[in-house]
Amino acid sequence: MSKIFNFCAGPAMLPSAVMEQAQKEFCNWQGLGVSVMEVSHRSPEYIKMAATAEQDLRDLMEIPDNYKVLFCHGGGRGQFAAVPLNLLGDKLEADYLLTGQWSKLAVVEAKKHARISETDIMTKTDSGKLTVKPCSEWPINAGAAYLHYCPNETIEGIEIFDIPETGVVPLVADMSSMILSRPIDVSKFGIIYAGAQKNIGPSGLAIVIVRDDLIGYARKAIPSIFDYEVQAKTNSLYNTPATYTWYLAGLVFKWLKEQGGLVEVEKKNIAKAELLYNFIDDSDFYTNNVDKSVRSRMNIPFTLVDDSLNEAFLAQAKDAGLLTLKGHKLVGGMRASIYNAMPIEGVQALVDFMKAFEEQQ
Q1: Catalytic residue from among 29, 56, 95, 102
Q2: N or C: which end of the chain has fewer CB within 10 A?
Q3: Is 29 marked active-site?
Q4: 198 is catalytic
Q5: What distance in Å separates the CA atoms of residue 274 and residue 199, rounded to the nearest whole number?
Q6: What domains, with CATH codes, occur in the chain?
């Protein structure tokens, strides 16, 4: 089989080395003669693996000691509900910033539990490119329970690199699509959460990094499975976790360490993104509609000069081993998701194909 490169926005491709190790261990994990999927999550072998995965994540992100790391059910959407239920306490209002579809979906869920103040911080440049208002113009309500935003919007291809100063108001970030792609200062946040299926591992898991002083204020009606205090006290083993996803996430964390950590990973992600963006910018055939200051390194949407060519482009790309390039239905066009696991060879193969396709027309 020729080399296949999967540009899916999620579930996304996993590192080949991780998949190969998982395949090797699938039926006989740690010499136990059974799969890790069959091992009790209360067994000493599994507990050791889980603890190692957490420590590796702490090392990679330099997570301070006054933060808990939780491995939760329900993916990112589960956290859309868990965040307000855990943080509101006796407050009634929370603030949400809108930068795209995922931040809007977080608002839809949060409105079931609180009075939400939502502010659209998306705008356009003089040339018509999508951009985001600077952090200095973001509204900070000192009486809000928290301020929520999404640093990377996978559909629009927008990434916010600056971190706002929110004072005493806890800053909550949905980092599902950019976590582990570059170093961040965790201490700037009250909560960071991320669905696993982009840069962490398979779907079914959410990582929650929560500051200690924000635990213990959950609404009484919260399901225990979403209660950060319950999860923290039980080391995320309140009930049977997503055991295989947790195991694979642990392999990914070790792989990231082997790459040199997040400083080196960021260098690779910058190189991949620049390769594709530079080609698009130099072409009259392809267009990206996001201002350079907020272009996502993880999700790169682009359009062809004529939408009638889209089906041919996708069909020929698939034949060339370049999968899942169709853009989201809300925006159309194409989208190349180039998370950590995508090698620069995959991006080069895409650029070569795009160039050849343009020359055919």
Answers
A1: 102
A2: N
A3: no
A4: yes
A5: 19
A6: 50-258 (3.40.640.10), 261-360 (3.90.1150.10)
What confidence category does residue 1 fall into, taking pLDDT thresholds of 50, 70 and 90?
Answer: very low
| Percentages (nearest 5) of helix, strand, coil residues in the chain | 40, 20, 40
What beta strand segments (E) does the chain contain? Answer: 5-6, 67-72, 93-98, 115-120, 122-124, 130-132, 147-149, 152-153, 158-159, 171-174, 191-195, 206-211, 286-287, 299-304, 322-323, 334-337
pLDDT single digits (tens) 28-69: 999 999 999 999 899 999 999 999 999 999 999 999 999 999
Percent of the chain with pLDDT strictly greater than 90: 86
Determine which one of 68, 198, 268, 326 is catalytic: 198
Q: Which residues pair with 115 in a beta bridge?
A: 93
Q: C-alpha distances in angstroms, 245 versus 63, 204, 339?
A: 21, 7, 18
Q: Which two tokens stand for residue 198?
A: 């982009």
Span 109-120, average pLDDT: 89
Q: At what angle do helices 16-25 and 243-258 cross, to 10 degrees?
A: 130
174 in catalytic set: yes
Q: What is the pLDDT of residue 2?
A: 60
pLDDT in tens, 158-167: 999 999 899 9
Catalytic residue (choose from 56, 68, 138, 174): 174
Which residues touch 50 (CB under 8 Å, ≥6 apart)?
41, 71, 235, 236, 237, 241, 246, 250
pLDDT tens for 285-325 read 999 999 999 999 999 999 999 999 999 999 999 999 999 99
Report whether 146 contacts 95 (CB < 8 A): yes
